[in-house]
Design brief:
Helix content: 10-25%
Order of helices and strands: EHEHEEHEHEHEEE
Strand content: 25-35%
Low-confidence stretches: none
CATH topology: YbaK protein
Organism: Streptomyces griseoruber
Radius of gyration: 15 Å
Distance between the termini: 34 Å
Strand order of the largest sheet: 5-3-4-6-9
CATH superfamily: YbaK/aminoacyl-tRNA synthetase-associated domain
Protein name: YbaK/aminoacyl-tRNA synthetase-associated domain-containing protein
Largest sheet: 5 strands, mixed
CATH class: Alpha Beta
Oligomer: single chain
CATH architecture: Alpha-Beta Complex
GO molecular function, one term: aminoacyl-tRNA deacylase activity
InterPro entries: YbaK/aa-tRNA-synt-asso_dom_sf, YbaK/aa-tRNA-synth-assoc-dom
Structural class: alpha+beta
Amino acid sequence: MRAPIGDFGTATPAPDCLEELTDPVADAVRHWGGSVPADRILYVETDPQWADTAVFVEHYGRDLLEKSANCVVVAGKRGGDTTLAACVVLSTTRVDVNGVVRRQLGARKASFAAMDTAVGETGMEYGGITPIGLPAAWPVLVDSAVVDLPWVLVGSGLRRGKLLVPGKAFAGLPGAVVLEGLGV
């Protein structure tokens, strides 16, 4: 099938290529319960050498810059407690960690989680973390601009592939909270 965005060879419905995904992402697709059917989540194979955003859009389509989202893991701290969460924002913006995220998590301090923590807790590769398949207890903070897009390119859990996801699907993820101004 042809990908709805970008210049990819083919796009495969995620339920048809679970072996290409990390275990947490494959399990999330296998047990999908969102309002958007799981077969509307598409997998595209990409070359990890082109994973950096600037190089990626040069190779797979300049229009992808405005249709891509980053998923970053943050840690909110209050007293001795730490809350891990994911933030999903358009790749043309940055996460408002010290404002929106800190307030949403009720934290005194918020920062990006250490790479080892992000990788260890998600079971995904750094640079490929996706909001699909994150630990169920985590808040998934999603910028409203992501939900408004017809299609969004996001990580697949690995650096060698991406997912093309209808924007409204992000609002239905476990723990999802859609926020205005998360990406600035």
